[in-house]
Amino acid sequence: MTIGIALALGAVIGVMLGLLGGGGSILAVPALVYVLGLDIGQAIPISLIVIGIASAVGAAPKVIAHQVQWRLAAIFAAAGIPATFLGTAIGRHLPQPVLLTGFALVMVVAGIRMLQDKGDKGTACRVEGAGINWRRCAPRSIPAGFLVGLLTGLFGVGGGFLIVPALVLMLGVEIPIAIGTSLLIIVVNSASGLISHLGGAGIDWSITGAFVGTAIIGSLIAGHYGTKLDTQRLQRWFAYLVFAVAAYVLVDSVFIH
């Protein structure tokens, strides 16, 4: 029964990663904690494995199609890698109810970002033509990359809900390229976060394998057929789901524990 639930949850997360370049990962830790009964110390590394592998599979066709901005990915990763270790170190000193409360607040921010996303493209870092003003944009990218890495280490989230808007609105990157770049950044941050969590709680490999298998399939299918769907409507409904889960986590962490 547990493996069956893990298969279903992995499929949902993979589909969201494939369709939205992130977002689905925000439900991985709550699903592992509240549906499968793991503690957050076990849930975070499993979440990072699932998110990292599913994102790598989702990123592969984007790389082949040249829908990745490599220099931006490198800037975000360089800022994010040390931040994941810092986030992990902070998380080890916080009790589970505090971590889950913080996680719920991050979910609220993610849901708000999803509702605010109208598909607009920023121009703040663009120059005449299609180029990017790197002197202006690199300083904007470094704090964003650091914040995403910190959240990855602290809560085991991919951070796509922050990366994609940052790339689109701050740097004016086209949405398909922003999604591909986001997936690549998530892969690097997830690997770094997993390394920082090694030596902590043991990983349940049967649950992890079930999650990963269906997340890969879901990510591939969604990435292939996603262009035919109304992703903005899907994102809006997914945001409502995120709010509902965040409310449950807050009530459980603040009033029950």
UniProtKB/TrEMBL annotation:
Keywords: Cell membrane, Membrane, Transmembrane, Transmembrane helix. Its main location: membrane. It is a multi-pass membrane protein. The chain crosses the membrane at residues 7-34, 40-60, 72-91, 97-115, 144-169, 175-195, 207-225, 237-256. The keyword Cell membrane applies. One of its GO terms (cellular component) is plasma membrane. Pfam families: TauE. InterPro entries: TM_pro_TauE-like (IPR002781), TSUP/Inactive_protease-like (IPR051598). It is found in: Cell membrane; Membrane. Belongs to the 4-toluene sulfonate uptake permease (TSUP) (TC 2.A.102) family. PANTHER family: MEMBRANE TRANSPORTER PROTEIN MJ0441-RELATED (PTHR43701), MEMBRANE TRANSPORTER PROTEIN YJNA-RELATED (PTHR43701:SF2). This is Probable membrane transporter protein. It comes from Mycolicibacterium chubuense (Mycobacterium chubuense).
